[in-house]
Structure formats: structure tokens, C-alpha cells
Amino acid sequence: MEASANTSCSARFDVRVHSLSAIKKAAYKFTHAFSVRFETVDQDHVIVRFLPLQAPTAPLDLLDAFHNEVLDQDLREHLAEETKGIRDLIIAQAFSPISLLHPELETEQGERAQAYRNTLENAPT
Amino acid sequence: MSVPRPTGTPLKTLPLEAFQAPSAQGYALLPFRFAPIPTGEYLLTNIVGEYILLHRTDLTALITHKLPMHSPIYDLLKSKHFLLDGASSVALDLLAAKYRTKLASLSSFTGLHIVVPTLRCNSSCVYCQVSSQSPERTKYDMTEQIADRVVEFIFRSPSQSLKVEFQGGEPLLNFPILQRIVERTSQLNSARKRDIEFVVCTNLTLLTQEMITYIREHNLLVSTSLDGPADLHNHNRPGRSKPTHDTVVRNIRMLQEAIGLSRVSALMTTTRASLDQPERIIDEYVRLGFRSIFLRILNPYGRAASPDAYSVEEWLRFYSRALDHILHLNYNGLSFREEYTAIILRKMLTPYGTGFVDLQSPAALGIGVLVYDYDGNVYPSDESRMLAAMGDSAFLLGNLLHDSYQQIVCSDKLVALVRDTMLEGVPQCADCPLLAFCGADPVRHYRLQGDLIGHKPTSEFCKKNMEIMYGLIHLIEHDAGASPVLYSWL
Amino acid sequence: MLCLHAVSKRTYDAPPFVGRVTTNSNRPAPLRDREVLLCSDPSSVQVTGFRAYLLAQHQDRADGAVFNLPPALSHLSDGDVIKVHPRAGDIRVLYRRASGSNTLLLTEQCNCACIMCCQPPKAGDDDRTEEVLQTIELIHPATKELGLSGGEPTLYPDGLLRVIQKAKSYLPMTALHLLSNAREFKHLRFAERLGSIRHPDLVVGVPIHADIADLHDWIAQRRGAFDEAILGLMNLRRCGIRVEVRVVVHRLNAGRLVPLSRFIGRNLAFCTHIAIMGMEVHGWALAQRQQLWIDPKEYGSALREAVRHLAFLGLRVSIFNHPLCVLETDMWGFACRSISDWKVLYLPVCDTCQVRHRCGGLFATSHGYHSAAITPVRLQTTAPG
Questions:
Q1: In the prediction, which pLDDT does C64 show?
Q2: Measuring CA to CA, which residue among B339, B318, B369, B283 is closest to residue B489?
Q3: pLDDT value of position C350
Q4: What domains appear along chain A, each with residue ranges and CATH number?
């Protein structure tokens, strides 16, 4: 990270360590005060440059905050990856009239449940 | 106690460890969102808005599966449905049920129907959002034919609970149409058997004894605007010919006598002049027997969108002082609450969602509220009507006189509007832990930022809600005096 | 404390039966076959037609179906229902007309083994459905409320459903309170069958020991108990049956009262009532008292916070089995006189207590385990003028 003599400042990232999407999402949060530029250095490295929209704020504070935000976005990506399936299951169950989680406890519910399952299987994708 | 205690043989019981998932098995994460808050801690919320505050080290440990199992923090996270382990999976069933509960209003569909009997008004409030017309111009009145179509439309909604809200202009200026709608709705309802509530939103300057009797006999609720004590109220809300405060206060008192304190409510709109006087405004409400106030920021429509507007930071300072003053009223024995805060608290602390239009995702446009203008035009929210009054009909859905219910409510335009602005799919909102408490406000973002989703880092709506919500969490968690007061507002 | 079970020295040879007690020797003939005459005066000793006769010590009767009234059962009166084993002289009171807290036992077996169980389960097949059905036929129809309990009453599902249907038919004005761990209601079909009876006033009271499964399962001593109880509660709700959550508080879960109240407020808000209950130190609770017993004063502030939390959320919450003197005064409105009349106790110090008449007292069955803070209350009076 560096603060240059003019008012912009920049940070350099290795995209093998932090995904590009994490870096971009983190940068988005600062666009209320900065214009953000991405520059590709090489296949594995990118520079993020912040240009203040108005009077310059303390660049080092910004870079600390930005770096933390990139780390947070990394964590969010891990979390989203791990919980996507469970999230879909919860929401499907929320709107299902029968149990998707414990079908074995509802085996005696009769034709209605079976008919519904049939429509799910036959639904066009 | 000196009663001799008989000895009993302790039974062989299995220890706690026999019922805990072994550490080697680890735990699974449940979906949640998180962000740092001003105090430096992190706020985590799950998909139904249950929350916890954690230090960053614990958050990182949690996500990277390094949090020690069965520690106090672990148990709390498990109890609040942020993780689960081999001992139990019922969290999934519960989360599904809770998610469904939060979104229950979706399945009832349009519950709020706003009706504009006339655009005429006898006032000229400095922030008027609808460019109202002077009292003589009756071409701005809703006709009987349109009124009857309004009633038809209201009953097309499948919702068991219906609220019909009269706005304007000044609804009392077209009282016969208001009466027609109330009576036709009530008549039809004897067969339909819905739960219907009527609210008249009025400046109360034109109230007559006959109207009071009518309001009482038909169980109407009344909502009025009271911006504060006389000097402030008259500054914000001058009548076309004379100051209004005295009349409004007198009429409030008469109505309260006639229909009860709980059936007359008031809200205030904040102007630059109000910013420095939150305490005086609230005290005026207390003086008049109100037990609640709705603190409203200026909406960016109509005359409100003027250079005399103020920044959201200024309003938040006003809100903070107001909330503080209200809390102190409560500490000293008066049950008084702020309505916007109470709505947010209900989202945060209870399993239920809200019917409040501005704090819903998917946005309540059309699916939660419909607005029927005096000329038969139908809008998906009051804000979209105000925008149309400024000349931008981007959100007009159709007209009662020549469009069917299907055409108006099931249009692709409306579906796209609601679907594409859902917070779950929007940059920054998708990651924000406050998503569970917040709402999509496409019309406001369109007006202020030029697009339906808006740019959240510069959005005043976002800034306002973030600061209020983080502030409330801070009070609930760290202020032992404020917390029970806030809970009492649920 | 009232005795509900005693043995008569006199016996006779006949099968067991359920009968209603009467002191009226002129009862209509068709009723006598299901009634036991409590012989109060010499003339009644000679009437005929009753199923059996309970005689005071000095009385006698030629006919064989005779018992001595054991002194412990001298409280028996008209309308009470008893189970009699003539060959053993065993008399058990199943229902007392004068009591506000009658509970019928459906089985003594249980599919849990709660550490603090005050009426420990017994092994062995004991389907008491027939006994309960017969009892219901004899219970007075003006009875306000009837409990159904065990053991675990859902272990004989068909029997339970017959009992509830019977109660609906014979006692339509009587509220039913079924105590169950709800595990068997994880089977939706069972909950549906119960719901389809459409009993006019049924509440299922379900114990939840903690907000997390490991602790609940540990206290219930059964893996999966928590999950099944919650699924059962959800199914009962789905089938339109009212449910109540019951929390027995002791040393193992007192520390989690506030998280539990928060959990209930979020996940079980559909419950019609929440009862936070003091522990009866009897049975296994007595045996395990070293790890279970806690003076209620110790968890007083957690109790208060939990109750206030639930009350702010608009949920109906009551405090059971706690005397008023160990509660903060703003909790008194939540306290109930919940201890069954036949096992309630007041201490000698309670004689001077100004709120004794409002207080639910203590468990006579708790072997002396009461709060060290039991003390007569003197009400604050404001100065006149």
C-alpha cells in the first residue's frame, strides 16, 4: 500500500490470495467518497487506485479500512460458499406445504403429498 | 431449614458430553450476514433478523471453523441459529418456519389501499409533496364512478386484513366521496367478512361536528399532522388564509373526546426550522395527550425538494435528540413511543415482519400497497404518486376507468420493479446485516439517484436507516435503562 | 397433604373396577352398579345394589363387597372416583370432585428419563386407557379442568385419542390439559388425528428444558428429545392444537433462563402460554438433589428478565410453584397458585404473611427443600394524607 504525493492512494493485491470479486465488492463501499480505478499489473496482481471526489481525506485510514473490508469480503465468500445449499433448503422448506426435511415423518399424509412431489419432479426447469 | 433430608441413591445418568456433538465432528454454518459497526464490534444477522455482536477474532474463528465447540459463545450462536452441529438439526425447520412468518404479508398481498378523494387543499404546507390545488377547483375531485371502481379493486385483494387510508389534498374537502367509499365498502363487507380499518389522514382544519359524528359512528381512525407548538406548526403549515395551529389543536381535542385518544394519531414532518427543536415538538404532543409521535424526514418530492432541505446527517442529529427526550419521558413514567423506531424494533426483536411500506424487501409496491388517485390513476405507492405530481409518471400502473385489475396488478412492469429491487440481489445490501430490518425504496432511489436500486454508499435512505438501526442495537445491548423502554414499544 | 391411596384391611374376591363414591343410599337403582356407597349411618349399611360398600370402623355388613374405610381416605366424598382392587383391598383415588386439579394417569411408562422427574416412570406394559375411559364416564360434567398425564401419555396413541374423544363426548364443558413431551407428535399423522377430534378446549403442555439441544437432551436423558419435541410442537400447531411450553427450573438450566426466553420468543411464539416452574424435589429430583437443587432466590433476576422479555413480546407467561416472598413484587402478577391442593404446604412462618391468601405455597412433597428466603411479607402502605 502506498500514499502518493498527490492525493490519490493505492493498494496492490495478489488475486490468488483475495478474489477479484472480494476486492471489487470492498471497493464499492468506498465509492461515496472516492472514485476507484482497477489496474491489472500481471496475471496475478491488480492495483486499486482511490481518487478522492472532494477534499482529500486521510489516505492511510482509508487503506486500513479498505484492507479490512477486503478481508471481510473474503470471509463472506467463504460463508456464502458454505451456506448456499442450506440457505436454498431453508427457503424451499419455508414455502413448501409438505416437509422436505423429514419426509419420512409424513408418509401417511396420503395422495396429496405424493401428488405435490410429482409436480415438483415434473416441473419444467 | 432444619428438616432432616432423607438420603437417596443418585441414579446412573449419562453425562452432558454424551449428548454433545464431539469436537472432532465440528459444526456447520447457517446463513448469515455481517459487518463492522461504529463501536468496532461486528454485527451478525441471520436470515430472519436474529442478531449477535462479536469481536472480529471470534467472527473469523466462527467462519473458519476454529471456534471452540461448546464454549459460551458457541452455545449462544447455536441457540440463535448461526450454526448447528450433530446434536440437532431442528434449526432448519425452525428457520424455515420463521422465514415464512417474516414474509407472511406477502401471501396476503395488498393490504393497504390509499385513496385520494381530492387533490384540493385549503393549506399550503411548505413541504407539500403533491402540488395540491386550491379549494375551489372541483375538477380535482374523485367522481362517484371512480369511487365505486376503487371499492371493487379493494375487494379484489385476497388479504383478509384491509386498511383503507384517505389521503389528499385534504380528504375532508370531498367528504361525500369519502362517505360513499366507507359505506359501499362496509356494505360489501357484510358478505366478504374481511377485517377492514379506515384511516382519514387530514389536516383537521375543516372538521365539523357532523364529520366527528360520522367518524365516530363508522369507527374511522384519524391521522393528522402536528409539526410542534404554534410557532413551528404555523411556520411549516400555514393555511391559505390564517394560521392553523389553534384550530388543529381544538379539533384534536374534540376528536379525542368523541372517539378516544388511541384512535387519533399524529405525525410530524421535519423542516429546517424543526431541526433545533425536537424537545419542544415532543412536549407539544405530550401536552395534547398523544402517546406516540412519528418523526418524518422530508420526502424529496414536490415543494419538499427545495434548497431549504437539509442533510440526512442534520436530521439524524434531530432524531437522536428526539429519541433521547422520549426515552427520558419514559424513564419518568410516561409511556410514549416513536413510531418509526417501534416499527424497526418489531423487525429486530420479534418473529414478525412489518406492513410498513418503506421497510420491506421485496418492496411493498403494489403487492403491499396500492394508491388510487382522484382521477382513477393507480400507483404502486404514495411516493410514486408524488413523483407523478411532479411530472414523472414512470410508476403509473394504469387507470381504474379503462384497465382491469389483472392489467394493473399483474403487469410485467410491476413484477420487474419488485423483483429487481429486492435487497437480497442488490450490491452492498446483499451483504449488509441490516438487510433483515431494512427495505427497498425504489421510487426514492429513482428520484434521488436516477435508478431504482440506487447507489447505497451515497444513499441518504441507507445512511438514515443504518445509523438508526446500529444506534438501536447499541442501546438495546449496552443501555440497561433504554432497553426495557424500547422493548415496551413492541 | 391429602392421601390418595390406601389399603383396606378387609378384602373380597372380585376383579378390579372403577367406581364413583356416593354417600346417598337412595341413589337411583341404575346408577348403583358403578358406585361405591360410603356408609355414613347405620341404616345405609343394609341397602343393596351398589358395586361396593365403604364402611366406617364400627360398621359391618353381611354382603361380601365391603371394605373398611381407611382413615387416610376419610376425605372421600360424593362424586369422587376411585379405582378398587378388591382382592388386595387397594383403593386409589383417581378424581376428587372438590379438587381444582385432577389429573388422570394414562400410563406410568415414559420415553424420556428426565433427571428431575418427580414421578419417575416404571417399566412394563400398563395401558390404562380402559381405566381412564371408565373414569371419564363417572366424572361430574361440571368439572372445569382435567389433566391427562403419565409417564408419557402418547405411548399408547390410539388409547389417548379414544380418551380425548370420550372427554369431548362426555365432558364437553371440561378443559383438557394434556402433559406430554410431544416427541410422538413428530409424526404428522398423529397430530392430524388429534386435531381432527376438534376438542373444544385442549391444550398440550410440553416441557422444554433449554434453548440448545445438548442441554435439553441431557436433562431429558434422551438424544434427539429436543428436536422431536420441537417438531411435535410445530406439528401440533399446524393441526390447530394449542400448545403450552413448560420450563422446570433447576441448577442445570437456571443459568440459561434468559437465552431460553429469547429462544421461545423467536421460535415458539405460537404457544398459547409459557409456564416457568419451580422444581418439585421428589422422586428422581430428590435423588439428584446434589446437582439439581438451587435456591430460587439465586436465579431471581434471571427469572425476572426472562418473564419480562416474554411479556414485552406479548406472550402469556406465568410463574408456577414459586412462593411470593422469593419473587420481586413486579413478578407477583405472573405468579399462580399452581401447586395441587392435595400437596400444598405453608410453613409456620407463613401464618403472619400478609399475602398468604394469594400465594401458591410450597410443595409438601419436596422433603423440606425450600428457599432459605421464605419470610412473611409485610405490604408497604403509603402514609395517609
A1: 79
A2: B339
A3: 95
A4: 2-82 (3.30.1360.10), 85-120 (no CATH)
